[in-house]
Specification:
Methylamine Dehydrogenase, Chain H, four-stranded antiparallel sheet, 427 residues
């Protein structure tokens, strides 16, 4: 009897030991999975950053909307100052909303006649045209002899820059009005299907995609190995450029149609309520930040929780009194951008407005800056040139309809499209 009891006790102890071992193993696996998920979702341990990856243009390239990370819309100093004299005007068959790109003596621009055009920058003569299935509102980029642009037919196109022959196209679900950016052989762009895409520049093969909660008209910028882009869901996003993993979703609480500027570790992003935000370019959201913040704010209002921390990445904001209607340009720590019917100069060090110039229409056109002058269009149909320091008007030129296209400056000539269907070259 004693031996039987001893054997039963031994078996009981063995079962308890096995159960304990199983519990410890399960708990350990769960903990490891939690650690792995946290590292994957909220750090760069699993997928590191390629910090040298950026979309700024080299000589003879136009790799992103407005050409560089400061969105200056200029190929660089030429020593020639445009005086407002018409050089030539190239007619298309419909309004031009797309912004031109100038590379190696050729101007590339889209039109609502469904075409992308290549035009000789000196003579204004057409070199070639390519017809898509809908409006071409997206602005083209040119890298390594290839033109990339989106169309409202939901396709991103890659054409030979010299001949206009199609190399490939990539189909999204809805219109592509966002202008692409390219970095190290990958093209990044947004679409009206709420998605940010990364595709191989050589083949058009999708590498990854990231879903937001609304359509994307903002054009991405790539810096420090991160894709920065705004969405109409009221957020600015920072996404790992290699993996497509979300790093930061910064809530602006209103649509972001303009394109972000990136400089010296800071991202500048404006929204439709007139706020411009400065965001830490390297920031990450803390775990479940947006979900927990809602409850934290409620508890704070009822006095049972401390004040919530500032949003991840927040540095400062400024209110411009009217919607941010264009993408900003940054020069010497000063932002220049459209806000309602004004072009505004905002000092990023003081967050104070330096000057504001009023036009007679909404300023959707993003300014171009070269030397001591700044150029932009307005829905009043005029191209304006202002003194960059004072905001005083240097000259203006009237087109035949409203302007939503953004000007570029190359070799002392300003190029801009108008809803009258013409691309203008002004010297």
């Amino acid at each position: 009897m004693y031996q039987r009891n001893t054997e039963l006790e031994r078996r009981r102890q063995a079962r308890l030991k096995r159960r304990k071992t199983i519990r410890i193993t399960v708990i350990s696996i769960v903990c490891l999975l939690i650690v792995f998920y946290s590292c994957y979702q909220y750090t760069d341990i699993i997928f590191g950053l390629s910090e040298e990856l950026e979309s700024t243009s080299r000589s003879g390239e136009w790799a992103m909307f407005r050409r560089d990370l400061n969105r200056t819309g200029s190929t660089g100093p030429s020593g020639i100052v445009p005086q407002g004299t018409l050089k030539w005007a190239f007619p298309t068959d419909a309004a031009i909303h797309s912004s031109p790109t100038v590379v190696d003596g050729t101007v590339y621009v889209g039109s609502r006649d469904h075409k992308l055009y290549a035009i000789d920058a000196v003579t204004g003569e057409k070199k070639w045209e390519y017809k898509t299935g809908s409006w071409v509102d997206s602005s083209p980029i040119v890298v390594d002899g290839v033109v990339y642009f989106g169309s409202n037919d939901s396709r991103l196109y890659a054409l030979d820059a010299d001949t206009g022959v199609k190399l490939w196209d990539f189909k999204a679900k809805y219109a592509i009005m966002s202008s692409p950016a390219i970095a190290n052989g990958t093209v990044y762009f947004g679409a009206d299907d709420y998605t940010i895409y990364a595709v191989d520049a050589a083949t058009g093969t999708e590498l990854w995609h990231f879903k937001t909660e609304s359509y994307i008209r903002s054009s991405p910028a790539v810096a420090y190995g991160i894709v920065y882009v705004g969405s109409s869901d009221g957020s600015c996003y920072a996404i790992n450029a290699i993996s497509g993993r979300l790093r930061l979703r910064f809530a602006t609480y209103a649509s972001v149609h303009s394109s972000p500027v990136v400089s010296n570790g800071v991202v500048y992003c404006g929204n439709s309520r007139g706020f411009i935000y400065a965001i830490d370019a390297g920031a990450n959201n803390w775990p479940l930040e947006h979900k927990l913040k809602v409850f934290w704010n409620i508890l704070y209002v009822y006095g049972v929780a401390p004040k919530p921390p500032t949003p991840s990445g927040f540095l400062w904001f400024a209110w411009l009194r009217d919607r941010v209607s264009s993408s900003p340009a940054l020069v010497d720590d000063v932002l220049y951008l459209g806000s309602g019917n004004r072009l505004v100069s905002l000092d990023t060090k003081t967050q104070m407005e330096r000057w504001g110039f009023e036009s007679a229409g909404i300023v959707y056109s993003s300014p171009a800056v070269e030397g001591k002058a700044i150029y932009f269009g307005s829905e009043d149909g005029r191209l304006y040139a202002l003194d960059i320091d004072t905001g005083d008007k240097l000259w203006d030129m009237l087109t035949g309809d409203k302007i939503t296209s953004s000007p570029v400056v190359a070799d002392g000539v300003v190029y801009i499209g108008s809803h009258d269907g013409k691309l203008y070259a002004i010297e």
